[in-house]
Amino acid sequence: MSNPVSAAAIYVRISKDQAGQGLGVTRQEALCRELAAGKGWPVAKVYSDNDLSAYSGKRRPAYEEMLADLEARAIDAVLVVDQDRLTRHPAELESFIALADRLGVALANVSGDIDLSTSDGRFRARILGAVARQESEKKSERLKRQRDQHARLGLAHGGIRRFGYRPVRENGAAVLELVEAEAALIREATSRFLAGESLSQIALDWNRQKIPTVTGSTWRVTTLRTLLTGPHLAGLRVHRGEIVGNANWPAVLDRETWERVGAVLGDPRRAQKGRPAAHLLTGLVKCGKCGASVYSGRRPDGSRRYTCNFEAGRGCGRISVVAEPLEAHVSAYVLSALDSPQMAEALASAPDVDRSAVARQIEEDEGRLEALARDHYAEGIISKREYLAARESIEARLAGSRRQIVTATPATLPAGEDVRKLWASADVSTRRAIIALVVESVVIGPGTPGRKAFDPTRVTVNRL
């Protein structure tokens, strides 16, 4: 005869609480309390894991807390609606059975008692656990097949709303439609970025205009980068991390433009980190003695200098130059170079590439990658070594095509006096983008002892 129950626990769980109201666990608790009253078990505590799956393997905090309380003998019985609310893993069930057997825990469920103190009760619990596990696996397989089918058809999947789109119902199915105001902002940001403006500057500008992200937060470089490189903007469907075809929603950007953005952001010279550069030559100036990068900073007297910083542990600390005259010198050099016949000839002789054709080639190669994995390797037609070799060849061609998209199009600038007008009205970010067309680095050599005036002979501008 089992010992009387002095403190019972009610455990409730629901995998998906889509309404966010906890109604499923509330109903479970009511049924368990009714069962406890019928058995004369006093309920000491309710443990609730709302919106958590017992199949996924994720941590269930309330379940873990209940096990700890059982070990501490704070409770001596557990009530659930059905055994699968408790666990869907056979190994987890075995652990619970061992715990219940060692501590003499009583278990009751609304659909029928399970006495874990007997071999018949444990046998029944194991059968029910295996059935629950199979049901979960079958459900998982159905969902996986459904997602695969949706991907092949280019249908939208759930999740957080994406900037530029909103989900709507059409003939009973979920589809995405453009949010025109947001789509216009994406196109504007893309144009600004391809013209040389930094992601940091665009993010700051959007935050100043109080344009929120879809979650209501402020824009950062990382969120803007993720937005502009998202394949969904080009009307492409991604499944399991790879582009699998065209989507059924409208594109915000044409394929060529989207590829250009991705190619530029993939160039380490255009890495977007932290705040936008505040000074014209940040990152371009090098120390003529040790080769370290030289950065702008203010002295106690308020003057600004580009200085090789010994304290940072990277430089020699022996080179310094007044900032404003240096920036004026380099600016004059750049404007003169852009206005020269040689530069005009260089821009005019840039490779004439049909970017639309290159974009189509990229799309075809992505289709080949998908077919290679789906129709050849997955079906056992080719070996893993053959698959990897073929994939490497296609990926190399893709990388070359993406480089071609961005390098075949030099920045478009006006000529003559118009360049100087553009420069005069441009902000630091735009001026830095113009300098990047001409200058690779600016090297500052040693100064003359006793000379305080700016000496242009110390400055060597290395052209691209």
Keywords summarizing the entry:
4-stranded parallel β-sheet, 14 strands, 15% strand, elongated, 3-stranded mixed β-sheet, alpha/beta, 464 residues
Structure description:
By secondary structure, the chain is of the alpha/beta class. It is 46% helix and 15% strand. It has 15 helices and 14 strands. The protein has helices spanning 23-39, 61-71, 83-86, 90-103, 119-152, 180-194, 199-208, 221-229, 255-265, 323-338, 341-348, 355-377, 384-407, 417-425, 428-435, and strands at residues 8-14, 43-50, 77-80, 106-109, 165-170, 173-178, 236-239, 242-246, 285-287, 295-298, 304-307, 320-322, 439-444, 459-463. The protein has a 4-stranded parallel beta sheet, sandwiched between helices. Strands 9-13-14 form a 3-stranded mixed beta sheet, covered by helices on one side. Strand 7 and strand 8 form a beta hairpin. The chain is elongated. The N and C termini lie far apart (90 Å). Mean pLDDT is 75; it is low at 17-22 and 267-275.
Distance between the termini: 90 Å
Strand order of the largest sheet: 2-1-3-4
Task: Identify low-pLDDT runs.
Answer: 17-22, 267-275
Our estimate of the beta-strand percent is 5-15%
Structural class: alpha/beta
Average predicted local confidence, pLDDT: 75
How many individual helices? 15
In N-to-C order, the SSE pattern is: EHEHEHHEHEEHHHEEHEEEEHHHHHHEE
Largest sheet: 4 strands, parallel
Q: How many DSSP E strands? A: 14
Using only C-alpha atoms, the radius of gyration works out to 33 Å
- Apparent shape: elongated
Approximately how much helix is present in the residues? 40-55%
